[in-house]
Every structure is written in C-alpha cells, then in structure tokens.
C-alpha cells in the first residue's frame, strides 16, 4: 500500500504546486487580480492541501487512482526508444565473410593472451570478453619464456593477443623469432593493443614496421571501413557519434600497402585543423594483411573501453583464426515478464500499459518475426489491483493469444519451503486450474520458480512436482553456478528438465521508474548501446510486470537494444518458445548438460533458497583420489581406524577421481576447501597391477592377451583391447593429472603418499597423514598395524595376536612382470616421470620416491 502513494506525495506534489502557482500568476496578470496577495496565497495553499488530501484518500482508500493524473505525471519522465541510426532501414551489405579457410586446420581454436601482469585492466577485459563468448584461452605474462606452442603437428593457439603490443615489439630476439615462425608456419594471426604511455609520440615509427603512430589523442565520431574483410558480426555504415572514451588514443599512419584501416575517428581537442586535413579521418584500428612479413595482424589504437572495439576484437579473432573462433550470427532471445497479476497496488499494469505492451510487441515483431513476450502468472493475485489495474488484468486476458504464457506458483510461494510433495502439487494445481478457467495455455512446458528457489540449488520435490503437474521440460535461473558474475551464468539439465541461464538487465520488481534504475538512465543506455545487455543477447531475459507499467522500462529497454543490434551488427535475431530455445541452446553447448554442483553453503544467496532440512555438515572434508591400484583401499582402511576420523571426519575414497578429466573442476565447485590425498607407485607396476586385477575379474581381453600384448596394442587394434591398454597406461601419466588438480587446488591442499612406503612403513605414513589433516588427538598406529608374514602386508591388529588383513583382491599373488615390458614402460613413462620430478620439486617435495628415481635411471639403460 505504501508504495502506490509515493509518486503522488513526492515529486509530483511539487510539480502540482508549481503548476497551480503558474496558473494563478497568469490569471492575476490577465485579470488584474482584485484579491489581496495574502488572501490569494492562503487560498492557493488551501486548494493544494485539499487536493493532496483528496488524492491520498482517493488512491489509498478508494484504490482507484485517476489514471489521467498518474499518467500525466509518469509520462513526463517516461523514456522513449530513441536510437539514432542512419542505416537502420538502408541496404545491408551482403555478409558472406565466414572467414573460413583451409588454414584453420593448422591450429586449435584457442587464444593465447599475453598480458602485462596478471592484474592488468585490459588483460582482464580481454579475458572477460572471452569468457562471455565462451572462447577458450590461455593467459601468459609477457616477457617470460614462451609457452609450448605446438602439439604434434598442430598449433595450440589460433590467435595470439598482446595486451600491450610494445611487449611484442620489444621481445628478445630468440623468442620473437620463435613466435613469428610459429605464426607463419601455422597461419596464426596476431592482435595487439597500443597501450597509453605518459610520453606522447608524434609520427613515431613502430619498431621494425612501416607504420607510424601518434599517441595520446582525444577523439570523436568513430566509423568503420565497410570494405574491410574483417567485419562480420559488426555492421559498418553508421557513425558512433560523440566523444570516444579516454584521452589516450593512438592513431596510425601507414607507409605500406599491407595496412588497411578498420576504424577511423576524428580529433576532438583544441587542435586547429588546416584546410587540407579538416575532414581527414584518422585510422584508430588497422589491419596488417601480412604482405610485409607474412603475419596477419590487427592493431588497436585503444583498449576495449570503447564498446565498438569489443565487436571488432571478436571479428578480428574470427578473421585471424580463419573462421575457427567465429561466433554464430544467429541469436535467439526471449523476454519473460514475471509476476503477472502479482505486483503491488499502484505499480501494476493499467489498460494503457497493456495496449503499449501489445503495440511494442508488434513493433518488435517487425524486426524479429514471431517475437512474443512470455508472461509468467500467479493466479491467486488476479484482480488484486485498483479498479484501473483490474481492468488491466482483464485486458491482458482478452489478449491471451497475443502472448506466450508460463506458470509461477499459485501464491508466488518459494518451492524450497515445501517439504511435502502433495502440498506442493496441490498448490501447482490451483494455478493450473486458474489457467484452464481463464483460457491461458498450459502446454508451454516451461515454468519459473518464484524468487529463483528450488531450481538451483536443486529442490528435488520441485522437479518432481513440475513434471507431474505441468509436464515441465524447461526452466531458467540466474543462480547457476552463481548470480555473479553474470557472464559466467550457464545452463544444465537435471531430471530431464533443461535449465537455461537467465539475465536480469537490471529490471527488477522495484525498477519501475527510469530515475530509479540502478546507476541511473546513463547506465541503462550504456548497457543497451554496446554494453552488457547488448553483449548478452543470446538469452532469456527476466523482467517483471512492474517494468511494463509505470515508466515502461521493459519496453524502452528491449525496443532500444533490438534497434541498436540491428543498426550495428549483422546478428540475425530470432525468438522461439522456451522449449525450442532450450533445445537449440543445448545443441550449441552440449558440454553444459551435466551440472557442476556447487556448495550452497559457500553462497549466502543459495543458502537462503535451500531447504532447511539440508546441511553442509555431511560433505567430505578430504578425499583420497587414487589412482587405482596404488594402495587406496589400505589407506582407506587405516584412516577409518582413527577414532576422530571415524566419528567426525567425513571423507571419501574414489580411485577413479585421479585421472577423470572433469573431476578436479567438479570437486572444486563442491568442496573448494577439501584436502586431497593421492598415492603414487611406479606407473609401470601400477599398469601391471591393473592388468592382473582385470584378469582376476575374468575379463576376456585380459585373459586372451598377455600384458605385453596389451600395452603394445596399436591404435588400430580392436576397441576393447585399446580400452584395456588405455586403462593400464593413462592413469600412470601422473604429472599430467596432478597438473589438472593443481589448476584448481593449491599445493598445500595436496598430500602425495609414496605407495611403496605405505606398504613397508604404514605407521610412518599414517603419522604424516595425521599431521597433514591436522587431526587430534594423535592416534598411535604402532599399536594397531602389524606386518602379517602370511599376507605379506601390514594388517589391522584386532585382538591380541590376531590380525585382520585386506581381502584376497588386495595384495594378489601373480608372477613378476616380464623384463621387456618393464623396460618398455619405463621408457614410455620417461617424459611423464621427468615432469613428475619437476612438479614435486616445484610444490616443495624434497624426498623424491625411490621408485621414481629407479624408473628414471633404469629407462636410460
Ligand atoms: P596388488 O594386489 O596388485 O598387489 P587399491 O586398493 O588402490 O586397488 O590397490 C591395491 C594394491 O594395494 C595392491 O595391489 C597392493 O599392492 C597394495 N597394498 C598396499 N598396502 C596394502 C596392504 N596393507 N594390504 C593389501 N594391499 C596393499
């Protein structure tokens, strides 16, 4: 109730007072007023007070706010889409630049970014844009030695980017030659940014190139070279009028036909142009066709602060990677309007808002065929507005067919608060019955949970009820993996329900008036004109009913951004119902289907929308990650003997974690503070133990082929044989797997056990382990482990003289490995073992295991 009176008591009151004053002043002048000024003033004050009281009573208690009055007040601030675009309806230059050439097969679709430091601003902007567009990249600090550039006969990187092009120009001879050679041999292009320096250069030559620069300029009015082959996503023709951000732009002057401008701008300072150069545009981004030194480049005279450069950067990546790093020009988008019928009195849609919604939708349809706003409803609050707003509700329903529809909960309740499936389903049924009664379609297969609850973190009951009541196939959330940063939002599939990422564009329930937009109108316009909204246009956008009443910010935002996209890009926007959208999405990003579960207790927002019955106390504190056949079962058994671990320390052992490609990422998402324990033995012995293990399990291949035949099987061998070979050999590439873990976890959280020591001196190993895990009180394993000569291993002391050993499958009896296989494997693992020694030294392990030393020295004999 409080909210709906605010506009009338606040700003408008002053406006009404001024209007009355003005009117009376005019009246006095014209009629040579007969009243005394003081009487008149009192009258005016009385009239004003009376009108205010009447308005309050009228709107608060009668609840029928006079629409012409509020309409008048709000219209005075309401923004109208006003995108200046000279080429909007002009002919489109046919875009057939897919940039694809055969050369793309020479390298992988990944970008190598050389930054000045790990924290430099432009470097971070570049990385953010790459994350946003899901382009793979690797960051290296310039000036250090070059990373490995090739992988067998293929280049590891399709484009090289220098945050500071100077770092490339000043590279030491050796590395520079290496890098240039790589670029030439693998047809890899380069992007460089001229970063500002204090000293201003005028006509200064770029070291070694027929290219001259003038730095530290203020510029305005940027335009593009329509003939450039680089333009693909970006559409030329329009000028970005006005000042360009920053006063440290660099412009180029070339002395060679290899250079072609991509972008121009004009000077914008107290510089006095002469007759001859008054209109000369200055190249601000320049393409090097590679005619000079056989390397193609694009050089930017300023960073990514200027929004157009973000588009040009993406196009340059596409061009220089020969079409490998090209984003699709087809983008789908959908605008959800949540909370239909839910808003507070005074903020809801009135008939003229509904008409505006329909009119805007028709205008958008002219640009995006089949576009329809997607309306989310909670039936319980139907007709809960004032009289005008109730008419608005009716008008929406009269136009049901013009929109798409989806269900929220009947009472807009958070699903995670339900612990009973029947109650949750009953609630959903109420909304479904409401929909049926009103003729709202119920077959969209899409639903959105109020307050983002229950979708992620997952509330299983919600998924079950959605399936049963509504046959839901698609939903969307802004919470996966986290609300922020928005560019990292992704989709996933759970219980056969596709969850799409949702973007908010700053239009929340309370964002109703342009002045109240977080950061002000400028911020919204920035977001539309090349900013975040413009960049995230492949998405479901979430807005709310109240964004379409009041200042109608929803309409303003989307009409503007669509026009802007049409003006400046060749993106083909289309819209589709959620189900189709989701299918396209997961076809595009199949890698996202499987969710990476995070820990709700590490995110306060997630905790708030997580069932009270769940707790984080039952998550493991440490993991024994394997690999298989190194003694993981023995370690697990010994750990479980410790009374403190048995009672408080949840831990988990899974020997297959070690070499799983995605496991470190997943573990880190769920248990970022977990400690990790790995056991290593000679990889050759490990391979043999695995072979014996599969053989003992009756595996046909292991029984039909000798160990030597298995490990020497070629890539043309039958698949089951290759599979066994791989399971024998791959986990033993220890350094490779550990590096993957170490990209997510610090060396301090990793404990490496020498598996041979675990066999020969488990007490010492367990003592070290207690220290690493910081477990108290100290448990004396000497009393609990004893060597059992019969088993040939240490076993648990149970009572008096008795021991309990691991089962027959652990510590098997089998003939020793053939010498030729051992030699072969020691050679095979030579590079991996060498890398392991390096890795161990790097993370501070001083005692290199004897088996590792032996394997390395034996491999040379
Ligand atoms: P073998 O059976 O080839 O000798 P995992 O439990 O990871 O599968 O590893 C099994 C291996 O653990 C056994 O391989 C054995 O060498 C080793 N191991 C280490 N300590 C052991 C113990 N106390 N009892 C039995 N096996 C042990």
Automatic annotation (TrEMBL):
An example molecular function term from Gene Ontology annotations: heparan sulfate N-sulfotransferase activity
Protein's name in the database: [heparan sulfate]-glucosamine N-sulfotransferase
Matches recorded under InterPro entries: Heparan_SO4_deacetylase_dom, HSNSD_N, NST/OST, P-loop_NTPase, Sulfotransferase_dom
Gene source species: Asbolus verrucosus
Ranges annotated as spanning the membrane: 43-61
Pathway linked to the protein: Glycan metabolism; heparin biosynthesis; Glycan metabolism; heparan sulfate biosynthesis
Ion transport among keywords: no
GO biological process: heparan sulfate proteoglycan biosynthetic process; heparin proteoglycan biosynthetic process
Membrane topology category: Single-pass type II membrane protein
Main location: Golgi
